[in-house]
Write a structure and sequence with these properties.
The protein is of the alpha/beta class. It folds into two domains: 227 residues, Aspartate Aminotransferase, domain 2 (3-Layer(aba) Sandwich), CATH 3.40.640.10; 145 residues, Aspartate Aminotransferase, domain 1 (Alpha-Beta Complex). The chain has a seven-stranded mixed beta sheet with strand order 2-10-9-6-5-3-4, with helices on both faces. Strands 11-12-14 form a three-stranded antiparallel beta sheet. α4 links the parallel β3 and β4. α2 packs parallel to α8. The longest helix has 19 residues. The radius of gyration is 22 Å and the shape is globular. The structure holds ligand T4K. Ligand T4K binds next to α3 and α4.
Length: 420
């Protein structure tokens, strides 16, 4: 157990953890059920193309979120691309820059211009008050992102979309298992898109889904994800791609679905421990979740106010990484500062003050079933020690970080094969 700054690995002490603690370690369901289903799949010799596990998975998810259609996909990014295309979005689409880059890329990939909008600093989701002034005659839609599983201001977005006859799509990559007004995410807007990547609290290996209550849209999406095949052999009636979920992914999903109550309970307990252990630390705030709603508690996100802590977010990330705690700076630096967007819109940051601020202050910490309560207490102790350093110790910290970078140390977080 670390007790003071001399114990910090950044100053040469042994790291707190031998094995790296990650943000986004997959939650794994019952292995026996998993292997049984694999055997079943192999015996059946049906591995893809709308197999029985995919059909069962789609039905279970649709029931769980209370939506007419769930169309399983090979990943969340392709699901976004297909949803965007099926909704016939073109020209310009308004979305937050404070999201994973896949949201913007899914538009740009189809030569649709992403128009970045600022977020509400309290919720980290797209700020409806900023949207209307970004609407032009070329605007065809809005994409809201339920960042950290906290729902967007859905009613305000619906109202703006209705008034301007825009399509409304939600990137619900973080939002599986969460609700708004008692209604599960997945059933809002024209459609919602989930990611079931291993870093999400519920995973299918790789995977995603589009959820919608629109029958015609669902039918179009089904055609699009399967090359435009009508369902009859050799009969293509639409332009399509390959967005199909495999049977292996679907059976992984079916198995993990059986454990989601447990995954959420662990996440919730982890979140509460972080909350207790970090309580009262000046300059540190832990994002909150609405206890009245269903939440998956997948993200333990801190906001660091350097004016108060004296140590900025990036310094804290380095201190944690030296301890083998791979904290992540999601979503640094913001889509508008990534290519090709930063070349297309070099001044976008001027319109995104809250996004700019958040991307330098926000930090995600490890949680999920791979992290123990004791791990969390030790992470919190490290954060407390890091923040309790006296200003004269910051010079020592700056020195340690400079030595590490001059020595050309590969960043701790790179996989072994990428280290020089
Ligand atoms: N929209 C939003 C808002 C999203 O957050 C995402 C994905 C998407 C759309 C697109 O959905 P997908 O097409 O991915 O289904 C990760 C994920 O790759 C990405 O899915 C996720 N968002 C994003 C927030 O995080 P990276 O580049 O940070 O991944 P990586 O390789 O650094 O992994 C994250 C951590 O998880 C690592 O520390 C290691 C750990 N990990 C990862 C995998 C894959 C494991 O422990 N086991 C694993 O199997 O993007």
């Amino acid at each position: 157990m670390k007790t003071n700054s001399d114990d910090l690995a950044i100053y040469g002490a042994a790291p707190a953890f031998h094995e790296t603690l990650h943000v986004g370690r997959p939650n794994i369901g019952d292995r026996k059920r998993f292997y049984e289903r694999i055997d079943d799949m192999l015996n059946r010799r049906w591995l893809s193309n709308n197999g029985p596990y995919v059909q069962e998975f789609e039905q279970r998810v649709a029931e769980m979120i209370g939506v007419r259609h769930c169309i399983a996909m090979c990943n969340g990014t392709i699901a976004l691309e297909i949803a965007i295309r099926a909704l016939e979005l073109k020209g310009e689409v308004i979305l937050p820059s404070f999201t994973f880059v896949a949201t913007a890329h899914a538009l740009q990939w189809q030569e649709i211009t992403p128009v970045f909008c600022d977020v509400d600093p309290a919720t980290h989701t797209i700020d409806p008050a900023c949207i209307e002034k970004m609407i032009t005659p070329r605007t065809t839609g809005i994409i809201g992102v339920h960042v950290w599983g906290r729902p967007c201001a859905i009613e305000a977005l619906e109202q703006i979309a209705g008034k301007h006859r825009l399509k409304l799509l939600f990137d619900a990559a973080h939002g599986f298992g969460c609700s708004r007004g008692g209604r599960m995410l997945g059933s809002f807007g024209n459609a919602e898109v989930f990611s079931f990547h291993p870093t999400k609290f519920f995973n299918t290996g790789e995977g995603g889904a589009i959820a919608t209550n629109d029958d015609a849209l669902a039918q179009k999406i089904r055609l699009m994800k399967n090359f435009g095949f009508s369902g009859k052999h050799d009969d293509v009636i639409y332009v399509g791609t390959n967005g199909k979920m495999s049977e292996l992914s679907a059976l992984t999903g079916l198995t993990n679905l059986e454990s989601i109550a447990q995954f959420i309970a662990v996440n919730c307990e982890n979140y509460e421990t972080y909350r207790e252990e970090l309580a009262g630390l000046p300059g540190i705030s832990l994002i909150s979740y609405d206890q009245q709603e269903k939440c998956n508690y997948q993200y333990v996100v801190l906001e660091i106010d350097e004016q108060v802590t004296g140590i900025g977010r990036d310094r804290l990330v380095e201190i944690l990484r030296a301890e083998n705690v791979l904290a992540r700076r999601y979503f640094y630096p913001g889509c508008h500062r990534m290519e090709p967007y930063r070349s297309y819109f070099p001044n976008a940051g001027l319109l995104l003050p809250h996004t700019e601020r958040l991307t330098t202050r926000v930090l995600s910490l490890p949680t999920g079933t791979a992290v123990s309560q004791e791990d969390i207490r030790e992470i919190c102790r490290i954060i407390r020690i890091a923040l309790s350093q006296r200003p004269e110790e910051y010079d020592r910290l700056n020195g340690s970080l400079a030595v590490a970078s001059q020595a050309g140390d590969p960043p701790q977080h790179l996989p072994v094969f990428m280290k020089g």
